[in-house]
Records
---
Amino acid sequence: MSALLQTAQTESDTQPALRNLGKAITRSAVPPLDLRAYYDMLFAAHGPQHWWPGRTPFEIIVGAILVQNTSWTNVARAIENLRRAKLLNPRAIENVPAPRLARLIRSSGYFRQKTKKLKNFVRFLRREYQGSLAKMFRAPTAALRDQLLAVIGIGPETADSILLYAGEHPVFVIDAYTRRMLGRHGLAPAKLGYEDIRQLFELNLAPDATLYNEFHALIVHTGKHFCRPREPRCGECPLRWFLPEPNFLAVPVDAKPVAQSGVRGALRPLWVSSKAERTAAAT
Ligand code: SF4
């Protein structure tokens, strides 16, 4: 974390520290604008998010599958039902009759599809890793990611959530909140694919599962509380310092940002450099 922020211990300490960091960023001749700076700013403002809310790796995996297309509140109820029924382990999920499993996870929506997805995952786990999550997570990241993506019902966001939050593999999770923030900050075109956005993060950050865990959770927090689909609260958001020039109008008057063109100029190379790196790597 930036030294400018290390002394911020309390809520009241944090705001002046953030303001100082924001001013330092905008005044610097070569602003230290990179994804790590985004992370430092969010962490200083909001602190650790304590993700993922699961007691065991298997519970995290169940949550990652059930949370598709629904809110966490609905998932939490389904997981509590599974816990009460003593089904939160791979063997139990494989053996329980599908209709009963569907009833227990009904609150998470699309419960018939999700029943199949849970069953598909535990069958894969038994077939490939003798039912052992420890064995599964010892597999190399890229190979395991490919295997997870081959399980019907597990897409990139779910696979990466499993790898990162249950297995502590350094894979960045991309979701709608991430896309919205990147788009509004001019860091990635709106229609950029999942893999390209994942590479944007992974090429611009150290491969550190703890960092990826916290950063993704902080982006979700930002998306829920500030970067809403309509009427984003940029004036109160810690990331306002990184906005492209026109949006600086949203910054409160007391913040007095300067060197706006420097900020805007610094945003471009982030994407250009990662794309260049990928092109170079491919040739
Ligand atoms: S400053 Fe505005 S656009 Fe940027 S993340 Fe915050 S709310 Fe979204």
---
Amino acid sequence: MAAKTKKAIIDVSKQLDKIAEQYQTFQILNEEGEVVNKSALPDLSDEKLKELMTRMVYTRILDQRSISLNRQGRLGFYAPTAGQEASQIASHFALEKEDFILPGYRDVPQLIWHGLPLYQAFLFSRGHFHGNQAPEGVDVLSPQIIIGAQIVQTAGVALGLKKRGKKAVAITYTGDGGASQGDFYEGMNFAGAFKAPAIFVVQNNRFAISTPVEKQSAARTIAQKAAAVGIPGVQVDGMDALAVYVAVSEARERAVNGEGPTLIETLTYRYGPHTMAGDDPTRYRTAELDTEWEKKDPLVRFRKFLEAKGIWNEEEENKVIEQAKEDIKQAIKKADDYPKQKVTDLMEIMYETMPSNLQEQYEIYKEKESK
Ligand SMILES: Cc1ncc(C[n+]2csc(CCOP(=O)(O)OP(=O)(O)O)c2C)c(N)n1
Ligand SMILES: [Mg+2]
């Protein structure tokens, strides 16, 4: 144990407590789906509420199907999303079509709901370049694998939107691990200094692969890291779709009104493994912790809320499940039928004008591929 510091002249004893106190978890629905914060309820029509539930159920099915397609060898890279639906889908639900998304590798669902066709998400998983070519008007980057690399880019995209006079935001997603990277501070600092319309969402699912959040930082919350760069920071119950929706809606409004960026920490959990590439969560997580978080499930909670309002039932949910399964079946077939990528494809999309040495190689490959 460290020796006790003698009475200090500069009294910092309460400093950290006072900081942490200011970042209380924002919640609207408790685990039973009961409203615990009535004045914070967002003004969403029944249709909108049902649409949000539809998207979360659909995304849970997509996750289940993606895991089994991966096990059958029909998908490549896949990072499971179950447990994080409120953080991902309700945050996206607060955006507009013209907003720009810079996702991490676990954030494929937000891209799909922003307009990336499902078959392209499957091609991305298989490492096919066409999976990274979002259609015109779908303003997204492809999922970033390098932890934190999308955060400085987000500050840049946001500043670009501002300079062009667009009423839009750049939103990025990273994890608790991402919040320990240098890029994280750099991106937020720049966006704060330039009042760029950015939203930094940190999905704190408690682990960076096997490293628990307590070992990643001495900060008691991730939200409070915003204060160091002079921007608002919000910690929200990331299993509560309504709370996440409100936090992002308000951040968006501030951003487009010229008030600059916001950091949002969502407290969440991934039920599955880190990715499908051999991670075994039982080696670093206890069954008790899994159970504790499963009780907070975002779908169960929101379903109870909607059922109590009389606008959701099993039949309605089954329709969504069937639709999701059918769409996935069609999309995987479309991905199967899509032309295999060729070496020349990659060369064609890399440069506007191909350098002469590549041009030579290009001719050689073109010849080979024609046989
Ligand atoms: C710069 C960098 N370092 C390390 C890795 C290896 N890596 C891949 S995922 C990951 C953990 C990230 O955890 P977190 O940010 O909490 O996101 P989560 O996977 O929990 O969604 C690490 C260390 C990487 N991809 N990039
Ligand atoms: Mg994490």
